[in-house]
């Protein structure tokens, strides 16, 4: 009897006559239906737009790769191919024009400079992180991960230095070992090693580089295992023990904690494993909880609570690349609603800073890059802001020079 009553009640809720006699419930049902329809339609539109954007990017990447191969092989390019300039770009000039001849000469000079540096690295510091030019010794300042070699792979490939590239590839395949009892900087290892391997994979399509990038990224991941998700800045590559430098008082550094997003998001996109993106995205989401109105954060953050401590606010050392990555991840995400929380970079353009060190010189380029996609008036506002520090940098006077710990740095007053 109970089952019959329950069945009857269920049928009543799906019977149209039930709602026709109850206008309020019919209206509520209609509202729910409309919202569900809009939600589904919006999701489908976002997915479709994303797929179309990915398809366009793949087509452009394929086209550019083909052009690069032609240039590497020493062949000329037809007039039709030379017209290609990417989405919204301008027509490319005739290859025989004086400007392009001069550009070709400049390219050769740059290539010669690269070969000079690379040949010295091969001869004196092969496989080491850096070459000391005066002593001609190789040093392992990044744990012996071949930082210079990996950082140079994409340049070798783009310049068509195939023999040099193949020798470097063999070193990566046979000698690059991340299982080292070494306390690595999460930030430095990400931008140099993960980034270098990923860009080379994108250019060459060689899965060796993607596998190596995933290997080192997996060794860095435990650094994000904190209560807040703000990462520790140092981790032992062999044992996976993360910690922060003693001189920070246990805090994490802003730039070191917020400058892994580009590489880890790209790694998730290429491997299909979302764990890398989730770790680095959580950092920005956590910071957004206490993000100040002026868009500038102190350089020290507690990795357990996610709160900032009373410390320096700067575009320079320990703060710089955090702001740079906010803009670049927004661009990486095609400036869609999904990455809108990275638009915080826009909020600090009215802040006055009385002092900037040399590491802050990225700011004009960041503002100029960020101006793309805005209305002419808005774009000009960003460009005008970008010009101010540049002008000051060019017109510095003697009182802007200070000697700090044995090295000369340029200090400038600028409104950002």
Question: Can you walk through the features of this model?
Answer:
There is one protein chain. This protein is mainly alpha-helical. It is built from 15 helices and eleven strands. It has helices at 2-14, 16-20, 23-72, 79-82, 98-125, 147-158, 162-174, 186-204, 207-220, 254-257, 261-271, 275-288, 320-332, 363-370, 376-394; strands at residues 130-132, 137-139, 183-185, 234-236, 242-243, 252-253, 300-301, 352-356, 401-404, 407-410, 412-415. Strands 3-4-5 form a three-stranded antiparallel sheet. It has a two-stranded antiparallel sheet with strand order 1-2. Strand 9 (401-404) and strand 10 (407-410) form a beta hairpin. It starts with a helix and ends with a strand.
Structure, briefly:
The protein is mainly α. Helices cover about 55% and strands about 10% of the residues.
Spell out the helices and strands N to C: HHHHHEEHHEHHEEEHHHEHEHHEEE
Strand order of the largest sheet: 3-4-5
Unreliable stretches (pLDDT < 50, length at least 5) are 77-92, 390-416
Major sheet, described briefly? 3 strands, antiparallel
Please describe the topology of this protein.
Layout: H1 2-14, H2 16-20, H3 23-72, H4 79-82, H5 98-125, E1 130-132, E2 137-139, H6 147-158, H7 162-174, E3 183-185, H8 186-204, H9 207-220, E4 234-236, E5 242-243, E6 252-253, H10 254-257, H11 261-271, H12 275-288, E7 300-301, H13 320-332, E8 352-356, H14 363-370, H15 376-394, E9 401-404, E10 407-410, E11 412-415
Antiparallel strand pairs: 1-2, 3-4, 4-5, 6-7, 8-11, 9-10
